[in-house]
Amino acid sequence: MKLPGGGICIVETKGLADLDVPLKMARLRQWCEDINRIQPDVEYDFVYVDGEGFEKYRPSSFRQLVVGFSRNTPGRPKCFLPP
User: Fold this and answer.
1) In Å, how far from its chain's centre is CA 68?
2) How many CA atoms lie within 13 A of 53 on its CB side?
3) Residues 53-60, mean pLDDT to the nearest whole number
4) What's the predicted TM-score (pTM) here?
């Protein structure tokens, strides 16, 4: 998702929580840090959306999805949309 300030927010979805998910999220976090360090033009960040949480809360808009699931993403995100 391209943010109004020019940043990019990656919305990572996982239907089933398996043993690889924490490793994948750690790698995505590292990738965002690495790409942000080597280039200053676009800031990258991410939000993790798990299938169980999505089914439970059923966000009715993309904004609700990003804001609501930012809690799933420790230390993250900067992916907040303006009102």
Assistant:
1) 11
2) 17
3) 90
4) 0.79
Q: Residue 61: exposed, middle, or buried by beta-carbon count in 10 A (0-12, 13-18, 19+)?
A: exposed
In the block, residue with structure tokens 């109004």: 4
**How many CB atoms are closer than 10 A to CB 79?**
22
Question: pLDDT digit string (tens) for 3-44?
Answer: 877 889 899 988 777 888 889 989 999 999 999 999 989 999
H or E segment at 45? strand 44-50
Which tokens in the block code for residue 83? 């009102």
Q: Check if the beta carbon of residue 66 is closer than 8 Å to that of residue 81.
A: yes
